[in-house]
Amino acid sequence: MQASQLRLLYKQGYGNVAVLSLMSFTKLYQTDQFVAGYFTDRLYILQNMNIVQFCEVEEVPLCSMKTLSLSLLSGHVEESPPGIYDLLNSSLGGREGGRGTQRGQLVSINIFFFPSSDRYGILVDPIQVVSLFLKDPYSWPASCLIIVSNVFIMAALYTERRLSVGTISETTGTFLYLVNLTTLLFFPSATVLMLTSITPVGGAFALCVYTILFMKLYSYKDVNMWCREIRHTKARTLTRSHSCPSVAQSNGSAVHTHVSYPGNLTHRDIYYFVFAPTLCYELNFPRSPRIRKSFLLRRLFEMLFFIQLLIGLVQQWMVPTIQNSMKPFQDMDFSRMIERMLKLAVPNHLIWLIFFYWFFHSSMNFVAELMRFGDREFYQDWWNSETVTYFWSNWNIPVHKWCLRHFYKPLMRRGVNKWIAQTAIFLVSAFFHEYLVSVPLKMFRLWAFMGMMSQIPLAWFVGRFLRGNYGNAAVWISLIIGQPIAVLMYVHDFYVLHYVSQS
Question: Catalytic site residue 433?
Answer without folding.
Answer: yes
